[in-house]
Specification:
5% helix, single chain, 4 helices, six-stranded mixed sheet
Length: 551
């Protein structure tokens, strides 16, 4: 079954690449304000307590015969705290800093007075009954001994699930005590995410694929907890059972989430600086400045707009998105004074929410620009300025910081880019000072990117698409200072209060309904923001209610 010599095997003594250096943020992490469980190193998710391990020992590295520079290395966690057990191993491609993690687990003793069901009387964690060898390039020769990897799937007891695979560099099975399986009712469904290694080429007769994993149920109300392990197979097809699962957070307290003081401290420490293009003329402003300096409220059947006070307190609330109201800006000279924004008043509007079952915190930061400028079309070497296409009033853009609730470390940032976006790991970010990253906002369209450059929205191969130009300039907003926390539902009612922001209480389309609790419960993609008289912003103000693509 595993006899094949065409798969390249790295000898651990001289053919392996150098050991990957672990990634560390540019500056030390501060001491966070006191709280319940945030950054304590451990999180209770019901009957199980989990801890994050980011120290590893290399087990085996392999590469393809036609691309020996593309290697993947498999690791086992080390430094596991007393009483905790592993659930599987970790892997990543070489050429990047070691930056991943796996969770380790132990049971939590329930109080004697706790009312438990029959299933709770069973242990939350159990050893596997055996292991099944799922893949190895071992061809049975003497020279293969010690140079091949062996991939093992734990065989769980009935009513339990495996959480990951184990890798050895010897043909013997791992010890049963090395990992734990989790009772099925404490687990959730996971899915493959990124295919990071694929040996299914014409030059190999032994297929082998490796994917990263993520919970299927994500979003701010999702309970799925990522274990950090991988999925591998030589024959798996999309839609088939993965044979492994992920954890589920059944603790309604979300004890690993930061309190309000900790939220402010996180933003002060990690808040990025947003740089606008040197040629940008459509700069951001605060919503209050936009209202005060010319935004007008219109109603169906009337041609005259009504002025809006700075707090938006007179905007109609309640009701439904019935298209009876919209917001526009005046014409003439006053229009020009509004569309160029006001950088001095600009701020980031912050929405804080749980991610991956409350083991991470997403800090979504929204910036408002009164006007979105026209686009530029690139056709090969030619740039064609589009005079009106792309223009609209009221442009909301965002980026999201993902914080590890075990340590308080910045893990990644989501960059919103028109109808899509991308997550970028912390090691691949640019930093302006300390642990504060840089966000590049593109000219006219205000999409967010991690690095300066020209990004094509279209076909890069053909060289045809809309230009997105990003560069550093004197126009910037420091989100670690210029921000306002406007929503953090998990903290409970009344914890986050902003008496001067009345407009967030409305649920109509022209309002900032992404901050309203009623709309957030839908968790669906829908048109929000401000619908202008000509309907021109309907597409640009569509975004995911979670503030970022689920990841």
């Amino acid at each position: 079954m595993f006899m094949c010599k065409c798969f390249y095997r790295n000898q651990l003594n001289d053919l392996c690449p150098p050991e990957q250096e672990p990634f560390s943020l540019p500056a030390p992490i501060p001491q966070w304000p006191p709280g319940e469980g945030f950054a304590s190193g451990k999180i209770i998710i019901g009957e199980i307590e989990v801890s994050k391990i980011s120290k590893f020992e290399r087990i085996w590295t392999c590469s393809l015969p036609d691309d020996k520079k593309k290697c993947i290395t498999f690791y086992k966690p080390v430094g596991i705290p007393d009483g905790f057990r592993s659930m599987g191993h970790y892997c990543q491609l070489n050429g990047k800093p070691l930056h991943g993690y796996v969770l380790v687990v132990r049971e939590v003793e329930l109080p004697e007075t706790a009312v438990v069901g029959e299933h709770v009387k069973s242990a939350a964690l159990r050893e596997p009954l055996d292991y099944t060898l799922v893949w190895s390039p071992d061809d049975g020769t003497e020279e293969s001994y010690g140079s091949c990897g062996y991939f093992w799937l734990p065989d769980p007891p009935e009513g339990y699930r495996a959480m990951g695979f184990l890798v050895t560099n010897k043909p013997g099975k791992p010890e049963l005590d090395e990992v734990r399986c989790v009772r099925a009712d404490l687990t959730d469904t996971c899915e493959t995410h990124n295919l990071i290694f694929n040996s299914c080429t014409n030059s190999t007769s032994l297929p082998f694929q490796v994917w990263t994993m993520r919970p299927r149920h994500r979003g701010m109300r999702g309970t799925g907890v990522s274990v950090g392990t991988f999925f591998c197979s030589s024959h798996w097809s999309n839609g088939e059972d993965l044979q492994i699962g992920c954890m589920k957070n059944l603790n309604p307290k979300l004890c690993g989430m930061p309190n309000l003081d900790q939220i402010h401290s996180l933003i002060n420490h990690y808040g990025p600086t947003v740089f606008f293009h040197p040629d940008e003329v459509y700069l951001p402003s605060s919503v209050g400045w936009f209202f005060k300096n010319g935004a007008l409220l219109y109603k169906t059947g009337t041609d005259v707009g009504e002025a809006i006070d700075e707090s938006g307190s007179y905007l109609p609330g309640g009701g439904s998105n019935d298209r009876q109201f919209w917001i526009d800006i005046p014409s003439g000279d006053q229009r020009k004074s509004v569309i160029y924004g006001n950088l001095e008043s600009a701020k980031l509007y912050v929405h804080v929410k749980p991610a991956l079952g409350g083991t991470f915190t997403d800090i979504a930061m929204w910036v408002f620009c009164p006007f979105n400028g026209p686009a530029t079309l690139k056709v090969g070497p030619m740039d064609i300025a589009l005079s009106k296409i792309g223009q609209h009033v009221g442009d909301w853009e965002h980026f999201t910081l993902r914080i590890c609730n075990f340590t308080g470390e910045l893990c990644s940032i989501y960059f919103s880019q028109h109808s899509g976006g991308q997550w970028v790991d912390a090691y691949a970010l640019e930093y302006i000072r300390g642990n504060k990253a840089i966000i590049y906002s593109t000219k006219n369209g205000h999409a967010s990117f991690p690095h300066a450059g020209t990004y094509l929205q279209g076909s890069s191969k053909l060289g045809i698409g809309i230009r997105n130009d990003a560069d550093r300039s004197e126009f910037s907003v420091d989100s670690s200072i210029q921000y306002e926390v406007v929503a953090a539902e998990y903290l409970g009612d009344g914890v986050v209060t902003e008496p001067d922001i009345q407009w967030r209480a409305s649920f109509r389309k022209f309002q900032l309904s992404f901050l309203g609790r009623k709309v957030l419960q839908d968790q669906r993609r829908r048109t929000i923001g401000w619908e202008m008289k000509d309907g021109s912003i309907a597409r640009s103000c569509c975004f995911y209610m979670n503030g970022s693509r689920n990841h």
